[in-house]
Amino acid sequence: MPRTDRRRVQPLPRSTRVADSANLRAVITLPLVLRFVRLAFVFAIVLSFAIFVWPTRYRYDHVVTEGDTYPVRIDRFNGDSDMLTPDDGWYPMGDTDSTGDSPDAHTSGTHRGRPRATS
Predict the structure, then answer these.
(1) How far is CA 65 from CA 62, 73, 93, in A?
(2) Is 4 left (phi over 0), alpha (psi -120 to 50) or beta?
(3) Kindly report the CA angle at 97 between 92 and 99, in degrees rounded to 5?
(4) Tens digit of each residue's pLDDT, the chain (119 residues)
(5) Distance (Å) of CA 109 to CA 23, 59, 83
(6) Residue 104: DSSP 8-state
(7) pTM for this structure?
(8) What are φ and ψ of residue 85, in 5° steps?
(9) What does the DSSP 8-state code read for residue 44?
């Protein structure tokens, strides 16, 4: 009588199985989708950092007027500068020329990005 061996055949591990066409499509596209999601997430983080953190709209400095030091903020986009006063809040700094005329309301108080020294 022939001897029959009744050993149980173990299935192949999932990684070595031959995938059918539906699974094959899912196996191929899943890493691509995950890669795209990861890239979009990193791009969103970099973009939000660039918009909200760096560079800020204003550059801060200070000016000394009549013995008092006041903070000054300078707009990086158009060069306008404002001085923080205790009574008025952010007050636009006007630009006076050498003739002593009154400051023009539409003229920036900066010279090449820096506030002019006051005497």
Answers:
(1) 10, 15, 12
(2) beta
(3) 135
(4) 566 666 777 776 665 555 556 676 666 777 888 899 999 999 999 999 888 877 778 999 999 988 999 999 999 889 899 999 888 899 998 764 444 444 444 344 444 444 555 54
(5) 67, 14, 10
(6) P
(7) 0.40
(8) -115, 150
(9) H
